[in-house]
Amino acid sequence: MYKLLIAEDVKLVRETLSRSIDWERLGIELVGAAKNGEEALEWLKRDPPDLLLTDIGMPKGNGLELIEAFRASKPDTRCIILSGLNEFEYARQAIKLQVQEYIMKPIDPEEIEEVFTRIVAELHKEREEQRGVELMEQRLRDRLPNLAQTLPMAEWTGSIKKKKLVEQAIQTIRENYSRKDLSLWDVASGVGLSEKYVNALVKEVTGMTINHWIVKLRMEEAARLLKDPANRIYEVCDRIGYVDQDHFRETFKKQFGLTPTDYRNNYI
To answer: Which residues form the Response regulatory domain (predicted)?
Structure first.
């Protein structure tokens, strides 16, 4: 069910809209009927609707101002104007605000039902498509957990085959980043590809080279370990594969904007 809020200052029109249309049959739940813009905004704060059917000329905030407020708070709200004002300026502003429909008074329940039937069908299609996208993304996260944990999906590029190879490369780094001698050759061997190709592949899919990934995972682990005061900084340095504490300190500061000591102090 999609939630609908009506905003109409004329009591007779408001009650007619509420009672003359079988909203539930259309897949709509009528959550409220506000008598002015101010009252409608209160509904927006406590129970944002999916649909807004509003008059233009109302006290305490007109319909166009109301639509603008809804757009700012909940951009995907479908807004429909029901008005007796047939002026170009209102129509122009409605187009600017991306109003779904501009219905003229007097009320024609059949026309209103047709409009909302079409809008509900569009909403349903969009939600089904969104669910499909979310399901696909979840499957990808399940199949490529290392990529999913370390990089937003919007930043992934390349084919599924390439992503799988990159997933293997990141897994190899994750399993071996504590090794002080970990190199590009080790990662390439773990994936079964040449050094040049695996580095280019990882850069293509994630925007980062193998070396950047090694540093990234080491620094993330260092940050985690530093939150525990029982772990001394030289021990953290050693556990993530760094030999030189000065190099570790410089790299950590570059990554987080703080030295390891200052970072730790934030958690003590």
So the answer is: 3-120
Q: How far is Cα 37 from Cα 267, in angstroms, rounded to an integer?
A: 47
Strand order in the sheet with 2-7: 28-34, 2-7, 51-54, 78-83, 101-104
Contacts of 62 (CB under 8 A, 6+ apart): 37, 56
Cβ(62)–Cβ(38) under 8 Å? no
Q: What's the rounded Cα separation, in Å, for the pair 113 and 177?
A: 62
Position 138 in a domain: no
Question: 49 — phi, psi (to 5°)?
Answer: -85, 165
Residue 175: other Cβ atoms inside 10 A: 11
Same domain, 129 and 151: no
**In b/e form, how buried is each residue of 75-110, taking b as 16+ CB within 10 angstroms?**
eebbbbbbbeeeeeebeebbeebebbbbeeeebeee
Helix and strand counts by DSSP (H, E) for the chain: 13, 5
pLDDT digits (tens, 9 = 90+) for 103-120: 888 888 899 999 999 999
Long-range contacts from 71-75, C-beta under 8 angstroms, 24+ separation: 71/97, 71/98, 73/44, 73/48, 74/44, 74/48
Domain boundary among the residues 110, 133, 156 is at 133
Q: Residue 33: beta bridge partners?
A: 6
For the segment 135-156, what is each residue's pLDDT rounded down to a tens digit? 887 888 888 888 887 777 777 7
Range of the domain at 90: 2-133
Closest CA to 9 of 131, 188, 17, 251: 17
Do 90 and 169 lie in one domain? The reply is no
